[in-house]
Amino acid sequence: MAPSIVRQTDPNSLSRIGPLHRQVYDRVQQTIREGHLKAGDRLPSTRALAAELGVSRNTVMAAFEQLIAEGYLEGQAGSGTYVAQGFGDMRSTRKVATGGPGLSKQGAAILSSGKTRIVFDDAPRAFEPGIPAVDQALLRLWWRLMHKSWKHARPSLGYQGSLGYMPLRKAISVYLAVARGVRCEPEQVVITSGAQQGLDLAARLLSDPGDSVWMEDPGYLGAKAALSAAGTRLVPVPVDREGLVVAEGRLRMPTARLAYVTPSHQFPVGATMSLARRLDLLAWAREADAWILEDDYDSEYRYASRPLPALQGLDDSGRVVYIGTFSKVMFPGMRIGYVVVPPNVTDAFAAARAVGDRQSPWLEQAALTEFLSEGHLGRHVRRMRSDYQERAETLVESVQKKLAGRLDVRMPDAGLHLTGWLRNGESDRAISRTAYSAGVSAMALSRNAILPCNPGLVLGYAGYPLADIRAAVDRLAAAIG
Length: 481
Known about the structure:
Layout: H1 20-33, H2 46-53, H3 57-69, E1 73-76, E2 80-83, H4 91-99, H5 105-111, H6 136-151, H7 166-179, E3 189-192, H8 195-206, E4 212-217, H9 221-229, E5 233-240, E6 243-244, H10 246-252, E7 258-261, H11 275-288, E8 291-295, E9 320-325, E10 337-340, H12 346-357, H13 362-373, H14 376-402, E11 407-408, E12 417-422, H15 428-437, E13 443-444, E14 456-460, H16 466-480
Parallel strand pairs: 4-5, 4-7, 7-8, 8-9
Antiparallel strand pairs: 1-2, 3-10, 5-6, 9-10, 11-12, 12-14, 13-14
Helix pairs in contact: 1-3, 2-3, 5-9, 6-13, 7-13, 8-9, 14-16, 15-16
């Protein structure tokens, strides 16, 4: 005789949540999965179980039909309903399943890459780097362009090409030629879900596991994560006031497969790569038959001079893959970036893009096309450049006043953040933890480094009003004494 289904749980719980037939289904399924009913056990008749549970017979019949369809039960004509063969106590198998067979080597590399997933709320904590200001004029304009694009969306709601919306690719190629000195055709532009996807695609397509890769040190965590996940061996190359020290890279690993650089505004120390270094890097790439990943993440915002032309514009041998994003210049939630690739690898990027997530959302691409074509980006950048410069000046003045002798800062030449250097050799990670407990995000510079580096704090300023910047510096000063 099968154990009573009613006695396995509180009978009064039935009919509290969800349709009755689903509650009966859940009750019987749970009883089977926990081993109270075993393979071959005969269940009560639908009439008897309905009376036992206090529901209609039709309710029980509907639950049984679903359980039979899913393979938990089987009906035998003229005999009754039985637990299907193959079911025993499944509690032990569930315990095993929670552990799983373990990660692959690639999965372990991703987990240990240092790229943590940070979830920001609507008001991120100062001084998180890489956060642009929420510009209300931009948001109103963006809403209007989205609405306009949606009105014309019907012919474009199907699948699109994996490389992206062609009108947007054309608009980006024109913008890059004028603003960044990038030389490309629209067919070379690959639309991505932000710069991080571009880094991931390039790392997987242009390197093999075990390949050596020059990595700026300190450098961007997202790039380290993508390159580590691809199985490459990171070769830390120092940076100075002229950017990546190419001569040191030649000494450490002259035959590297790839070099990752942020030449326009090095992350996180803020250096700009000199022309001599750029030419030397390109010469090395030709000699070593190597690739260069140029991450141009926030070069639009330059305060000391006009934005410098991209490294890609100097490349005459098709070795530079140029990666950009609209997350920093507009807002991160847009999730539209792009990669400019040499013509000989375009098909490979198209195939990899299709495997990853097929395509970016059409509506946002269409709105961004209008935004670029109507000249709104240039006007937005000019307006925000002045705003960001004032915020940077306020941060520098506040730190120099409140943390004189502890943190050395200077006005940045470009970007959305600056790096302050700790003067007394203190642990930047310890200070970062103390600051966080006081409500201030001050990223430790050493967190971005592979080899030991001078201690410092990476402070973003663009996304925070002047009053918030001053208040956060006060809290930081109070926290670290």
